Sequence to fold (82 residues):
Amino acid sequence: MEIVSHKYELDRETQNKVGFMAFIITKFARAYKMNRQQAYLYLKQYGGMDYLNDCWWALHIDNPYWAIRDIYKVCVSNGGMR
Fold:
């Protein structure tokens, strides 16, 4: 019997993207007084995660304050609470 072992490795860009997304969700949660799960669900429901996924490269070179503000604006424009 042969044992097959699969080793999955993420490329550097994917690692950077995932790391930034985790970082910004935590910052967003703190800024808007949520826990991380609430922040993630809010971002997912109102398009913030899609925006973050599509624009992470531009957002990650900006000041986190402005990145969070931009993500918040996207969520509000998609029906999120002010």
In short: The chain has four helices and no strands. The chain has one domain: 13-77. The mean pLDDT is 92. Residues 13-77 form one domain.
